[in-house]
Write a structure and sequence with these properties.
Distance between the termini: 35 Å
Number of domains: 2
Low-confidence stretches: none
Strand content: under 5%
Mean pLDDT: 81
Order of helices and strands: HHHHHHHHHH
Helix content: 55-70%
Largest sheet: none
Number of helices: 10
Length: 161
């Protein structure tokens, strides 16, 4: 748990200092690899010491099976380590579901979720949502997909502060 706390401390420091995503990526690369290696070796050691049908062994196998997904944040700096921020912002969405029944299209759900995710990111970063969208949306259709990481609320806040 101490290594996981250190990983979260790296991101907390980056948020506190409002560094760019590129700078956060460099910091994760410097500190994250040794921590991730330690965590993985501890999981593998626990798995080898546990009985094959025990809950501990199954938990270790589960973690190792999902290791690439668990460590995706290391490759993609725009990803957060935890989904807590997003999950904590979801109760208003759950309360509003009945109000959105009029949407009526199966494709609308993922689109609404994406929009709300961007709005909540802006709120978390204390960025004016209207200013963000009025800057980003015009000309969005003409941009290549490789430019999308530069349009995240976190990058927008860095450029407009």
């Amino acid at each position: 748990m101490a290594q996981i706390d250190e990983l979260f401390a790296v991101d907390a420091e980056a948020r506190r200092k409002t560094v760019t995503i590129a700078a956060r990526h460099i910091r994760r690369q410097e500190t994250g690899r040794p921590l991730l290696d330690d965590i993985r070796s501890e999981i593998e050691a626990a798995q080898s010491a546990a009985l094959p049908s025990s809950a501990l062994c199954k938990a270790c196998q589960y973690a190792l099976t999902l290791w690439n997904k668990l460590t995706r944040f290391w490759e993609y700096p725009e990803l957060e380590l935890s989904t807590n921020l997003a999950e904590n912002s979801m109760p208003p969405v759950a309360l509003g579901r009945k109000n959105w029944l009029h949407i009526g299209s199966p494709q609308a759900g993922p689109k609404v979720a994406a929009i709300l995710s961007v709005v909540e990111s802006c709120r978390r970063l204390q960025a004016p949502v209207r200013d963000y969208f009025s800057t980003i949306l015009p000309g969005l259709a003409d941009l290549p997909i490789r430019c999308l990481p530069d349009l995240t609320p976190a990058e927008w806040v860095v450029r407009h502060s």
